[in-house]
Amino acid sequence: MTDKTWQVADVGASDVPDVRLLFEAVFGHAMSDSLWNWKYGDGRGVGVAARAPDGELLAHYGGTYRELRYGAFAHHGIHIGDVMVAAAGRAALSHKGPFGLVTEEFFRCHVGSTKGKGVGFGFPNDRHMRLGERLGHYVRVESIFELQWPAVSSRDFEAVPIDWSDLSTEARINELCESLMASFLEHVIPLRSFSWLKHRFANHPEYQYQAFWIKELGSRRLLGAIFLRTLPTGCLPDGQACWELMDWIGSPVNSTMLVEAARHVVFERSGHALRLWCSGLVADQVYLSEGSKNRVCFAAMTIPNPFSETPRWWLTGGDTDFR
After folding, report:
1. Which is nearest to 286 in space by CA: 294, 296, 276, 295?
2. To pair with 280 at 20 to 30 A between CA atoms, which of 18, 125, 153, 317?
3. How many domains is the chain built from?
4. Same domain, yes or no, for 88 and 153?
5. How far apart, in whole angstroms, are the C-alpha atoms of residue 270 and residue 265?
6. What does the mean pLDDT of the chain come to?
7. pTM for this model (two decimals)
């Protein structure tokens, strides 16, 4: 198998139906046109595809653009996702196989180069992490954990649904985002802002999220905002309702209180448990003794990147495109 055997290029509009078919074949469920546009439309992302000589699309490597904050500086980043290889192409997971070819082209054009974004990040499983390390493209930056706590009632918090159309919402959210990001100058944190959070949680074409202002009961002091979703039935052994805390914003000193507030919100809505999918840096901030903690995958950073060392990353389920 040689480079000349394959057609490797950026995904164009005519390629999208084939990429969606590959997604369904690899992941076992369909990607709607609206979800594709939510991810990649209006210049939000880019993908590279490899076609066999007969024209069959056998591999895809994608990324959606995301600004990152590290130190006092912003960095142009790209969140790697929708990395997939058809069964017919998996026998050659090497530099010269379809996976290696789309990866090399993506890195050459879209990340770690003068033409692309400065740094990429993603959440590979163990197998893809080892492969990315072997090909010299990934370095591990965090373990990703799933934390779970029982839902509990609390008299300490008031949860008020966020009205995205309220004229005051944008300024309040941006202030809470800055409070969070300014506290992590020694770590990398993907940019949180009103426009990003609205796109992520209010405009998703398939998942329904719920967003709340969290206030201290009595003083009504604003502690932050939380973003939740209900998980599919069957995620708990007994069939009871489980929710996921996707993200929160506010001063990090309030993080544990915001998790407690989320547990209260779930309890008030007849939920049984709350889960959080996050990097080890986040887990260190909020882990509570009555919860459980299990490692589920890794967070990886691309090589090359603009950082002189390997920093830690603040990452939650909201930083993915699949939760």
Report:
1. 276
2. 153
3. 2
4. no
5. 9
6. 91
7. 0.92
Q: Measured between alpha carbons, how far is 168 from 154 in angstroms, rounded to an integer?
A: 28
Is the domain of 162 the same as that of 104? no
61-88: pLDDT as tens digits = 999 999 999 988 889 999 999 999 998 7
Answer yes or no: do 67 and 179 share one domain: no
The residue segments making up the domain with residue 78 are: 3-122
